Amino acid sequence: GLVLDFDTLHVVFPGILYLLWDESEENSGPTLKTQIIGLATMAVLGFMWYGGNIYFNILNKQVLKAFMYPISCTCVYLGVNALAGVIGWTTGVLEKPQLKEGQLKAFLPMALFHTMGNLLMMMSLGMVAVSFTHTIKACEPFFLVATSATVLGQLPSINLMLSLVPIVLGVSIASMTELSFNWLGFWTAIGSNVASALRNTYSKNYMGDKRGDLSSLNLLTIISAQSCLMCIPIALYFEGLVFLPSSAAMAGLDYWKTVSSVIVAGAMMTLYQQTSYSILAKCTPVTHSVMNSVKRVAVIVASVLFFRNPV
Question: CB-based contacts of 121: which residues, under 8 Å, 6+ apart?
């Protein structure tokens, strides 16, 4: 039977609630009203972030089981993310950025880490269970602490450091008996941690810099477009032209159903990454990473229930 140790959740959530209130107090002013508004905004964005990520991980795992081309799928996901921003600019929903000379070049390190983080995560998800990948990804806050201290000069408080321990341990305990262990899946997840930590740190550094006059969503749109362009030659070299009717036919798949599933997964990735970047703009990279670890509890539980992985 399926048995989940939900007691680990009681270890995780007190830490994240402390961090959210601490960020609200620091960034929103001293009044109780602004703190409540800040927490309510975080809650709505967090719900969209978590929900979109759960849907993406379940659908993406189903896609990769049948259509085993993680690099090509990543290209489509990044392209959908960029396209969503372009549609926002065209319709006026998102303010069109006024780029200055040299800005696109400044975005390249963020785009490179964005590419590596997504590619390595997709490779890990394709090789092992969703719950195992997210157990390893739960260690991301420790990488954020190192990169934030190095790049931003932000030294975390003792309380923040202590709050990382039960959060990461709680997520690890939730699926510590994972049966799908694979060393390549493990190291690609670790590599994704490092790349994601560097992307978030450099992105936050740009947002906090005087040059950072772009909204968080505009920044994500631009680096997603750059990342998509970086991914295309990699996908063509390692996987070839896979989004062809003949490729789906060889795998015994319905072409349009496969393409539509990949596009919907890309839309869910767009939803959770855009809300994730909106939250990153409102807090420190370390706090954002801690929230990300708590999100992985929800992803692990949902994936275990959906795929019936024994834990």
Answer: 133, 137, 188, 189, 192, 196
Give the residue from 41, 71, 97, 101 showing the smallest Cα distance to 220. 97
From 153, 144, 146, select the one nearest 200 (Cα to Cα).
144
Residue type, 302: A
Helix (H) or strand (E) holding 196: helix 183-208
CB 286 within 8 A of CB 156: yes
Question: Cα separation of 231 and 236, whole Å?
Answer: 9
Q: Residue count of the chain, please give it.
A: 311
The average pLDDT across 284-295 equals 75
> What is the four-CA torsion angle of 75, 284, 134, 273, rounded to 10 degrees?
-30
Residue 152's Cβ-side half-sphere holds a number of Cα atoms within 13 Å equal to: 24
CA 286 – CA 296 distance, rounded (Å): 15
Cα(98)–Cα(282) distance, integer angstroms = 22
pLDDT tens digits along 126-161: 888 777 787 777 777 777 777 777 776 777 677 767
Residues 170 and 12: beta-carbon distance below 8 Å: yes
Is the four-CA dihedral 189, 298, 111, 61 of positive or negative sign? positive
- Cβ-Cβ contacts under 8 Å for 122 (sequence gap 6 or more): 60, 64, 70, 71, 73, 74
